[in-house]
Design a protein that fits this description.
The complex is a heterodimer. Chain A is about 35% helix and about 20% strand. Chain A is α/β, with parallel strands linked by helices. In chain A, the strands form two sheets. Chain A has a nine-stranded mixed beta sheet with strand order 3-2-4-7-1-8-11-10-9. The two termini of chain A are about 20 Å apart. In chain B, strand 5 and strand 6 form a beta hairpin. Classes of the chains: A alpha/beta, B mainly beta. Strand 5 of chain A pairs antiparallel with strand 4 of chain B, so a sheet runs across the interface.
Chain lengths: ~375, ~140
Amino acid sequence: VNSEDLVAIRGVGMSRTGRRLHLDPLHLTGEAALLAIADAGLDVGEIDGVSTYPGGAGSTAGMSGAGVYEVADLLGLKLRWFTGGAEVAGQLGSLVNAVLAVAGGLCEHVLCFRTVFESSAQDLAGSRAAALTGSNSAAPMRADGIREWSLPFGALHTSFGGLETRRYLYETGSSRQQLGQIAVTARRNAAGNPRALYRHPLTLEEYLSSRMISEPLCLYDCDVPIDGSIAFVVSRKSSLDGHAGSIGIQAIGSAPTMKAAAEMLWSRTALTPSDIDVAQLYDGFSILAVQWLEALGICGPGQGGAYIDGGENIGLDGPTPLNTGGGQLSGGRMHGYGHLHEACIQLRGAGGDRQVKPWPEIAVVSNGAGHFTGCLLLSAP
Amino acid sequence: VSTPEPGQAKRPLPVVTPRSHAFWHGGADGHLHIGQCQQCGFYSHPPLPYCPRCHADGVTAVPVSGVGSVYSFTIERYTWLPDLPAPYVVAEVELVEQDGLRLLTTIVDCNPDDVTIGMRVAVSFIRQSDVFFPVFRPLHRDGQS
């Protein structure tokens, strides 16, 4: 028996979200947690596990909004198991850990959360660059650890998106016109999501003429930092009697690299890529969503550009509706948890104007890039 | 051997460790130094304490040709670091010594818009304090950089 068969995502919650909220991130975390626990039909006292990404210590300002201990204190939890860390299978690794803890019998109901307040942190630091590099602070970012190999050459986060994009366009012969469909489609979907950050239309022409950040990575290829918190309750299936709305977990992919994670996911289920009804793929940079489309076998290797060309295949009416809530590009950077949240919304048929029809039965969610990768195959209640 | 830094650019200095010492300071002798297994000959970068291929405990930083080609690159149009004004190039260069042996660096002595994937490049060093940053410049057909 796979661990996936023993558990379900029983509750979902999202706090207030937005640009520069300047609210206590622990406050936002409490909001999301209480909503998720209520949605799960549980009392707070029944939560006996906590799992979070990246834990109390974040890498750059606003990356980590709250840690395990703060949240346990805030809610008065009596824990049997907990974890918080960044070296996991993408942000979804925090869910994977929760699944294993519940399936292994260490606990019954795990509160999983991800809180970001990068938008406010960047406002306080003076600029996004200042927050990412610490250039205005007493403790500027040091070129140590993995940054020893990048920062001395002026390589920051977007540089890696630029390098990936350039090489992809070169190897596959894809065009920026094709790549632009990721951002344009996300924006079209965001129009139907009242919680999305940017909801006004974005044309392909606007995409193509937007300013370059790490060329060929342009402004609209980059996600938008926001503040907010999302929480889930992962529970033992045997506890679900009489509870509607629980999302099934069909398969986990927790291996490092997109390809290895996707291969692992498909090795744990009889389902195949053609069973996917909706896809929420990580889009911190547009290129990552294209790479995940290929890794997951939704299209062939090197075929991503052709597959998204024109946008029909990834539109709400297409064979693979993609990032239906606007993704991180238009919805705001909830750092992976937003993709899982939107998958649950779609599988519950609660998508309103952006609901995929017919009501999807199977959703795939992916998080991360490089060796920091994870994916989940989910099923409707 | 040494290339003057354009303008008043100032790079963040690496926090050098015993493992990375030869990479950042080795340029003093005009050569790029990369870790190589003395057992099986496998190169690895960033440097590792033993060989990831044969697991021999005998990796030594050795001078390499410093010649390679651009695997990918980006033109930074946004100034992230106040002392390193845009535009500048961030590149992954693959060295001729071994397939897949790549390092992150920058391309100098070349208009950023003229950089291409596959372009042949050779190492050069920018000295700042006691660090010799390995950077790359175009290698022309006659082999002269």
